Amino acid sequence: METNTQSEHVHLLIIGSGPAGYTAAIYAARANLKPVLYQGIQPGGQLTITTEVENYPGYPEGIQGPEMMVDFEKQATRMGADIRFGMATKVDLSKQPFTVTIDEEKVITADALIIATGASAKWLGLPSEQRLNGSGVSACAVCDGFFFRGKEVAIVGAGDTAAEEALYLSKLCSNVHMIVRKHEMRASKVMQDRVLKASNIMVYWNSETDEVIGDKKVEAVRLVNNQTNVKTEIPVSAFFVAIGHQPNSGIFAGQLDLDEQGYIKTVPGTSKTNIEGVFACGDVQDKIYRQAVTAAGSGCMAALDAERYLSAKEHH
User: Is 45 in the same domain as 106?
Assistant: First the structure.
């Protein structure tokens, strides 16, 4: 039994276990970098709260999100990656090798680090929203809008993402009920104009979600006008939450360059951060696409970048 204070040195450490982390592990293991991957607070990442995934190439019948992440993990393990349960709670990137503390007790030093800690969707915080998550409640219109073709849906949010997702849904669904908290949107003027011009998007101003209604699946949403206190119930089959994402980058603040929303900045076209030997991939550095397939692609880039970095270091 190892003692808690014992430290361990690894060649390449990967933190995070969504499509980005696991893909990085597959490539790194095949390159004989003996990667150690810590899965983090939500092994499998955001896909574990997604039910059906139909837009990932190679699964003609579609696949359940959690099942797909089990496949990714099995493949990484088969290639020789050392997959472990645990969460990075502290990092010191000021000197080589980098130091990462796992679960506030175990210390790992690493020659190179791949960060794949992802992002978490922001929720309204209603119990009904969590209860029906995956049964009509979703934080990704691009992922799940397809399942509600021809149906009435609601979306909450007022930024560019919400406007974009409302427009995306308006092409698939019969009607889109858009719930906006204030009397105006935060979205750019051009996005607002498009939303207001769409004949099947109804915007409810000064409105908040009181409750998502439904027993086994979403059946309606109840709104409350925050000026008049009048409540309205709208029958819908789905409820999309588009109030933003929070990148899981808190422990890197002050060490890595982050943008104003907290996403890790990478050198365009690479996974390189401002610290040599530290690479970032997946949703922790991507606020534009946020898809499983783009996360996996960036995980591959991170492993290749790390491999080149480590190999150059050895030859010095």
Answer: yes
DSSP state of 300: H
Q: 163 exposed, middle or buried (CB, 10 Å; 0-12, 13-18, 19+)?
A: buried
Annotated catalytic residue within 71, 111, 143, 193: 143
| pLDDT digits 0-9 by tens, 212-265 | 999 999 999 999 999 999 999 999 999 999 998 899 999 999 999 999 999 999
272 and 195 within one domain: no
Same domain, 262 and 162: no
What is the number of other CB atoms lying within 10 angstroms of the CB of residue 82? 16
Catalytic site includes residue 144: yes
Any catalytic annotation for residue 283?
no
Closest-CA residue to 277 (of 148, 2, 93, 144):
93
What's the one-letter identity of residue 307?
E
Tell me which of 71, 92, 103, 140 is the catalytic residue: 140
Number of domains in the chain: 2
In a domain, residue 2? The reply is: no
Phi-psi region of 157 (alpha: psi -120 to 50; beta: other; left: phi over 0): left
Same-domain check for residues 135 and 232: yes
Task: Based on the residue annotation, tell me whether 173 is a catalytic residue of this protein.
Answer: no
Query: Do 78 and 52 share a domain, yes or no?
Result: yes
Give the count of beta carbons closer than 10 Å to the beta carbon of residue 54. 13
* Domain end position, chosen among 224, 241, 258: 241
Residue with tokens 């933003």: 244
Catalytic residue among 111, 144, 283, 286: 144
User: Would you say residue 153 lies in a domain?
Assistant: yes
The tens digit of pLDDT for each residue in 2-38 reads: 445 678 999 999 999 999 999 999 999 999 999 999 9
> What pTM did the predictor assign?
0.83
